[in-house]
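Hi R.,

Here's the chain you asked about this morning:
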Amino acid sequence: METGRRFGGAALIMLVAVLVLGLGPGKARAQVIGYPADSCYDRNVDCGTSEGESGVLTESAEFYGFPRANCRTRWARATRKNLARMVVYHYNEQVRWCWSGGKITWFWRDRWASDTAFSWIFDGNVNTNCVLEHCNNRGVGTYSTDAWTQGEFHACVIWYCPHRYPIVDIWVHGDGGSGASWSGA
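And here is the predicted structure, written out as C-alpha coordinates:
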Protein backbone atom coordinates (compact mmCIF):
# COMPACT_ATOMS: atom_id res chain seq x y z
CA MET A 1 0.00 0.00 0.00
CA GLU A 2 1.37 3.39 -1.02
CA THR A 3 1.16 6.06 1.68
CA GLY A 4 3.25 8.91 0.17
CA ARG A 5 2.84 11.17 -2.84
CA ARG A 6 4.91 10.88 -5.96
CA PHE A 7 6.98 13.89 -6.97
CA GLY A 8 6.73 15.31 -10.47
CA GLY A 9 9.86 16.58 -12.25
CA ALA A 10 9.47 20.27 -11.24
CA ALA A 11 8.59 19.42 -7.65
CA LEU A 12 11.60 17.11 -7.39
CA ILE A 13 13.93 19.82 -8.68
CA MET A 14 12.53 22.27 -6.15
CA LEU A 15 12.92 19.75 -3.33
CA VAL A 16 16.55 19.09 -4.31
CA ALA A 17 17.24 22.85 -4.45
CA VAL A 18 15.74 23.30 -0.99
CA LEU A 19 17.55 20.35 0.59
CA VAL A 20 20.93 20.47 -1.14
CA LEU A 21 21.39 24.22 -1.59
CA GLY A 22 19.73 25.20 1.68
CA LEU A 23 17.35 27.60 0.02
CA GLY A 24 13.99 28.55 1.44
CA PRO A 25 10.90 27.73 -0.63
CA GLY A 26 10.59 31.25 -2.11
CA LYS A 27 14.26 31.39 -3.06
CA ALA A 28 14.16 27.87 -4.47
CA ARG A 29 11.18 28.82 -6.64
CA ALA A 30 12.96 31.96 -7.84
CA GLN A 31 16.13 30.00 -8.60
CA VAL A 32 14.49 27.04 -10.30
CA ILE A 33 11.46 28.54 -12.04
CA GLY A 34 12.66 32.15 -12.25
CA TYR A 35 10.03 34.36 -10.64
CA PRO A 36 11.62 37.86 -10.53
CA ALA A 37 9.07 39.18 -8.04
CA ASP A 38 10.28 36.66 -5.44
CA SER A 39 13.51 38.62 -5.04
CA CYS A 40 11.54 41.72 -3.99
CA TYR A 41 10.61 42.50 -0.43
CA ASP A 42 8.10 45.15 -1.51
CA ARG A 43 7.18 45.77 -5.16
CA ASN A 44 6.93 49.56 -4.66
CA VAL A 45 10.25 49.81 -2.85
CA ASP A 46 13.00 47.54 -4.10
CA CYS A 47 11.63 46.28 -7.41
CA GLY A 48 11.43 48.24 -10.60
CA THR A 49 13.55 49.93 -13.23
CA SER A 50 16.10 52.69 -13.53
CA GLU A 51 15.59 55.04 -16.48
CA GLY A 52 16.73 58.44 -17.61
CA GLU A 53 16.04 61.21 -20.05
CA SER A 54 17.60 64.45 -21.20
CA GLY A 55 16.91 67.45 -23.43
CA VAL A 56 18.04 70.90 -24.46
CA LEU A 57 16.20 74.22 -24.15
CA THR A 58 17.16 77.35 -26.02
CA GLU A 59 15.76 80.53 -24.50
CA SER A 60 16.45 84.11 -25.47
CA ALA A 61 19.83 85.48 -24.40
CA GLU A 62 18.10 87.99 -22.13
CA PHE A 63 16.83 85.06 -20.05
CA TYR A 64 20.44 84.34 -19.10
CA GLY A 65 21.23 88.01 -18.46
CA PHE A 66 23.43 88.49 -21.52
CA PRO A 67 22.01 90.69 -24.31
CA ARG A 68 24.22 89.26 -27.09
CA ALA A 69 25.23 85.70 -26.37
CA ASN A 70 24.69 82.10 -27.41
CA CYS A 71 23.17 80.30 -24.43
CA ARG A 72 21.34 77.02 -23.75
CA THR A 73 20.07 74.82 -20.95
CA ARG A 74 20.73 71.06 -20.87
CA TRP A 75 18.62 69.07 -18.39
CA ALA A 76 18.80 65.41 -17.41
CA ARG A 77 17.18 63.19 -14.83
CA ALA A 78 17.48 59.70 -13.44
CA THR A 79 14.10 58.09 -12.77
CA ARG A 80 13.14 55.13 -10.59
CA LYS A 81 9.88 53.32 -11.44
CA ASN A 82 8.20 50.47 -9.59
CA LEU A 83 6.96 47.25 -11.18
CA ALA A 84 3.68 48.93 -12.11
CA ARG A 85 5.78 51.51 -14.09
CA MET A 86 4.80 54.31 -11.69
CA VAL A 87 7.48 56.89 -10.85
CA VAL A 88 8.80 56.60 -7.30
CA TYR A 89 11.32 59.46 -7.71
CA HIS A 90 13.24 61.69 -10.14
CA TYR A 91 16.76 63.00 -9.54
CA ASN A 92 17.30 66.10 -11.71
CA GLU A 93 20.20 68.24 -12.85
CA GLN A 94 20.31 71.15 -15.28
CA VAL A 95 23.18 73.21 -16.63
CA ARG A 96 22.82 76.66 -18.17
CA TRP A 97 25.80 77.83 -20.18
CA CYS A 98 26.81 80.44 -22.71
CA TRP A 99 29.63 80.36 -25.25
CA SER A 100 31.44 82.52 -27.76
CA GLY A 101 34.38 81.83 -30.11
CA GLY A 102 34.53 78.14 -29.17
CA LYS A 103 34.84 78.83 -25.43
CA ILE A 104 32.43 78.65 -22.53
CA THR A 105 31.70 82.14 -21.20
CA TRP A 106 29.19 81.37 -18.40
CA PHE A 107 28.11 78.23 -16.48
CA TRP A 108 25.46 77.54 -13.81
CA ARG A 109 24.23 74.19 -12.42
CA ASP A 110 21.08 73.29 -10.40
CA ARG A 111 20.16 69.89 -8.91
CA TRP A 112 17.09 68.63 -7.06
CA ALA A 113 14.78 65.69 -6.33
CA SER A 114 11.14 65.57 -7.41
CA ASP A 115 8.06 63.35 -7.54
CA THR A 116 8.97 61.15 -4.58
CA ALA A 117 6.24 58.57 -3.90
CA PHE A 118 5.59 55.17 -2.27
CA SER A 119 7.58 56.04 0.88
CA TRP A 120 10.74 57.10 -0.98
CA ILE A 121 12.55 59.96 0.77
CA PHE A 122 15.30 62.21 -0.62
CA ASP A 123 18.23 62.25 1.80
CA GLY A 124 20.12 64.97 -0.04
CA ASN A 125 22.88 65.55 -2.54
CA VAL A 126 25.81 63.42 -1.40
CA ASN A 127 28.52 63.91 -4.03
CA THR A 128 29.60 66.17 -6.91
CA ASN A 129 32.68 67.21 -8.87
CA CYS A 130 32.04 70.91 -8.12
CA VAL A 131 33.46 72.97 -5.27
CA LEU A 132 30.49 75.35 -5.19
CA GLU A 133 26.82 74.25 -5.14
CA HIS A 134 26.00 75.79 -8.52
CA CYS A 135 29.43 75.17 -10.08
CA ASN A 136 29.53 78.90 -10.77
CA ASN A 137 31.48 79.61 -13.98
CA ARG A 138 32.96 76.12 -14.14
CA GLY A 139 35.06 75.73 -17.29
CA VAL A 140 34.84 79.38 -18.33
CA GLY A 141 37.52 80.04 -20.95
CA THR A 142 37.76 76.36 -22.00
CA TYR A 143 36.10 74.40 -24.77
CA SER A 144 34.31 71.85 -22.56
CA THR A 145 33.40 71.01 -19.00
CA ASP A 146 30.96 68.86 -17.08
CA ALA A 147 29.10 68.79 -13.80
CA TRP A 148 27.93 65.57 -12.18
CA THR A 149 25.89 65.06 -9.06
CA GLN A 150 24.87 62.13 -6.89
CA GLY A 151 21.82 61.98 -4.66
CA GLU A 152 20.64 59.56 -1.99
CA PHE A 153 17.11 58.16 -1.64
CA HIS A 154 15.70 55.56 0.73
CA ALA A 155 12.38 53.91 1.51
CA CYS A 156 11.46 51.74 4.48
CA VAL A 157 9.01 48.89 4.81
CA ILE A 158 8.96 47.77 8.44
CA TRP A 159 12.64 46.85 9.04
CA TYR A 160 13.80 46.84 5.42
CA CYS A 161 15.25 50.15 4.11
CA PRO A 162 16.94 49.99 0.69
CA HIS A 163 18.99 52.99 -0.45
CA ARG A 164 19.61 54.20 -4.02
CA TYR A 165 22.36 56.58 -5.16
CA PRO A 166 21.55 57.95 -8.63
CA ILE A 167 24.18 59.90 -10.57
CA VAL A 168 23.46 62.46 -13.30
CA ASP A 169 26.27 63.94 -15.44
CA ILE A 170 25.94 66.81 -17.94
CA TRP A 171 28.74 67.99 -20.21
CA VAL A 172 28.73 71.12 -22.39
CA HIS A 173 30.95 72.56 -25.14
CA GLY A 174 32.04 75.95 -26.39
CA ASP A 175 30.24 75.36 -29.71
CA GLY A 176 26.81 74.79 -28.09
CA GLY A 177 27.04 71.00 -28.07
CA SER A 178 26.15 69.05 -24.94
CA GLY A 179 25.24 65.62 -23.62
CA ALA A 180 24.20 63.77 -20.49
CA SER A 181 24.28 60.39 -18.78
CA TRP A 182 22.67 58.84 -15.70
CA SER A 183 22.90 55.69 -13.62
CA GLY A 184 22.02 54.16 -10.28
CA ALA A 185 18.36 55.09 -9.95
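One quick note: The chain has two domains: 9-39, 49-183.

Cheers,
M.
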